[in-house]
Amino acid sequence: MKKTKRAFLMFGLLSIAYVLVYFHRLCPAIVADDMMRDFATTGTLLGLMGAAYFYSYAAMQLPAGLLTDSLGPRRTITVFFIVAFAGSLVMGLSTSVGWAVFGRTLVGFGVATLFVPTLKILATWFKPAVFARLTGILIAMGGVGSLIATAPLAILTEKVGWRVAFLIVAGVTVALTVLIHLFVRDAPETETGGIRPASSEKRGPAEAAGLRAGFALVLSDRSMWALCVWFFFTAAIFFSFGGLWGGPYLIHVHGLSKTGAGSVLSMTALGMIIGSPLLSFLSDRVVGGRKPVLVVSGALTIAVTAAFAFLSSRLTLPHLYALCFAMGMFANSVVSVGFAAVKELFPMRIAGTATGIANIFPFAGGAVFQPLMGRLIERQGVSAGVYTLRGYEDAFLSLFVASVIAFAACFFMRETHPGKTGLDTAVVPD
């Protein structure tokens, strides 16, 4: 197989695998009501089940880079996708919320090691001029995964049940694992031979010291910490609503069917698919700055969370569609601008370290806020077998506070756009 065809085949397979990553991230929003009923469980425990993915995913971010360098991208992905397959299987066969938590933890560990190895493969196989474009497509494919986790998943679960749906996902996962093992190669030089680790040289004392210095530099930067706070609270909003509690809220408060709730939540995915390239373009070419885009997005996120926290009883279906679209754009796709700012804060030699550290915080936000919202919702009790409007308003108030903190954090960041700083750190244009 020619190198070009091989490269695009690999990109296609890895992009499809990234669809699965985002599907797992957000699918509990659709199946949450069914799981609460089948397990006879509380909102707090269901929140813990949803958050289990984020705990394990966040814990794997730094190890993912080390494993990519030592085992190589292909081995890292295939080994851990087997773990994701096992997790999906456990979830499909679970008979209690404890088993569901265990299965979702395995899924989080398994899919956490796809993004970093994929970026390394893209950097190795493709020219720098197309790297940014392919990365944007990869992130957009994550939006496709978000979309599948809404209305399509609702339709599937209504036909076969949520357990069978997870067993089907397990089958897709193992099929992708086999295809990745067969067709993905770490570098063009290894196409006809065995797998060669991405870095076969041993780290010397000087390089290890450089790594420690890089960590110290990243952790001592005030603007970096402001970005980490912003990541934590911004992602907490999207992952808590779009990834778990949005579905039950739409069903319990607005009386939507599961399919109807999935249709409304699909707007968060559409906002992500459209917003990721749009906000990046605005930041790069129109505004010429990262900070203004983050500030405006933060202000609009405050407006969205305020509507849910203070006006929930008055929201109509068109309002819900518009608010979910805005949430997907301004509380999720905007992270692409945030990661650009992280990369530009530091020299290229430690940009990977900075990105790995920053990438812990979005998932930590989801891990903390999903069970927190469950506890707040549960505290107000149930009425006619469902959680009350008051409970959801209390939970959404926590998201409003999170949006205010994220907005405030923007003002402690310094501008990093190369056009404003005069530093040539931008991605090579195509």
Topology (elements, then pairings):
Elements: H1 3-26, H2 28-39, H3 43-59, H4 61-70, H5 73-93, H6 97-111, H7 115-125, H8 128-148, H9 151-160, H10 162-183, H11 205-219, H12 222-252, H13 258-286, H14 291-310, H15 317-333, H16 335-345, H17 351-358, H18 360-379, E1 382-383, E2 386-387, H19 389-410, H20 418-421
Antiparallel strand pairs: 1-2
**CATH top level label of the largest domain:** Mainly Alpha
Would you report the number of β strands?
Answer: 2
Principal-axis shape equals: globular
What share of residues are in beta strands? under 5%
Protein architecture, described:
The protein has 20 helices and two strands. The protein is mainly α and 430 residues long. A two-stranded antiparallel sheet has the order 1-2. α1 runs parallel beside α8, α4 crosses α5 and α16 runs antiparallel to α17. The longest helix is centred in the middle third of the chain and has 31 residues. The two termini are 26 Å apart. The C terminus is likely disordered.
Concise summary:
With 430 residues, this protein is mostly helical.
Descriptive terms for the model:
430 residues; mainly alpha; Growth Hormone, Chain: A; two-stranded antiparallel sheet; 2 strands; disordered C terminus
